[in-house]
Amino acid sequence: MIDKARERLIFALDVDSLEEAQRWVALLHDKVGVFKVGKQLFTRCGPQVVRMIRDGGGEVFLDLKYHDIPNTVAMAALEACRLGVKMFNVHALGGADMMRATVARVDEQYPRGSAGRPLLLAVTILTSSTDQTLLELGIDRPVTEMVPRLARLAADAGFDGVVASPREVEAIRAVCGPDFAIVTPGVRPAFAAVDDQKRVTTPADALAAGSDYLVIGRPISAAAEPQLAAGKILQEMAAALDAT
Ligand SMILES: O=C(O)c1cc(=O)[nH]c(=O)n1[C@@H]1O[C@H](COP(=O)(O)O)[C@@H](O)[C@H]1O
Question: Which residue is closest in CA terms to ligand 1's atom 11?
């Protein structure tokens, strides 16, 4: 079960240099299956960080949350595919046309089922957002309604899955079915601080709800003993997978 748990643990490499990223990959590669490269690290290092992780045998989640006009996102998505990442994301709030254009462009070069095609993920509502955040944007529907709505929009556009809080997994499954990938940040083991996350659950609860991948950063990176923290999380995940 530990191996299965490892495949489903994504570590957020929220650091500012290639050397630092290398250090974390070396430290955690036996506990983490996928490393997430986000805006900070990619802006600093570019594609070489993706190559570094892949050369070391790790998989990459490219988390650049594209949100732009359809053609721009579709072309950026193609570049993400060319980097050989396992998954990448766009913002579902970019709209159905943007997501459909992205799927169409990726389909041309990386047909569904072909080797090297990454998972196309849509971020629903950020895990740092609340109903109040949405109200301030002029959206008067609650997060609990918006998340499955955006997930369905992404599924209808041909996306493979979404990024959401583990609290919404059940509602997403109800509208998108069992094969839709659900990637959940907003995961906090009992020993860690919540930080700026608002909609969180424990790793065990996220897996019990049916989450496919857990994205975890600071509970590991800010721990006094990161390897120990990652090991504890992995144990908790393996026990939860055993119980399902
Ligand atoms: O797309 C993401 O990865 C993402 C979406 C979301 O809704 N919330 C969210 O926290 N993330 C990312 O997941 C990571 C969570 O990190 P920690 O809060 O440190 O565990 C960060 O790198 C975020 O950028």
Answer: 185
Domain boundaries, the chain: 2-243
Q: Which residues are annotated as a binding site for substrate?
A: 14, 36, 63-72, 127, 188, 197, 217-218
CATH topology of domain 2-243: TIM Barrel (3.20.20)
pTM of the model: 0.98
| Residue 155 burial (C-beta neighbours within 10 Å; 0-12, 13-18, 19+) | buried
How much distance in Å is there from the Cα of 9 to the middle of ligand 1?
13
Q: For the stretch 36-55, what's the b/e string if a residue is b when 16 or more beta carbons lie within 10 angstroms of its beta carbon?
A: bbbeebbeebebebbebbbe
Cβ < 6 A, ligand 1 pocket: 12, 14, 38, 63, 65, 89, 123, 126-127, 163, 185-186, 195, 197, 215-219
196 is catalytic: no
Question: Could you report the per-residue pLDDT of 192-217, keeping only the tens digit for each?
Answer: 999 999 999 999 999 999 999 999 99
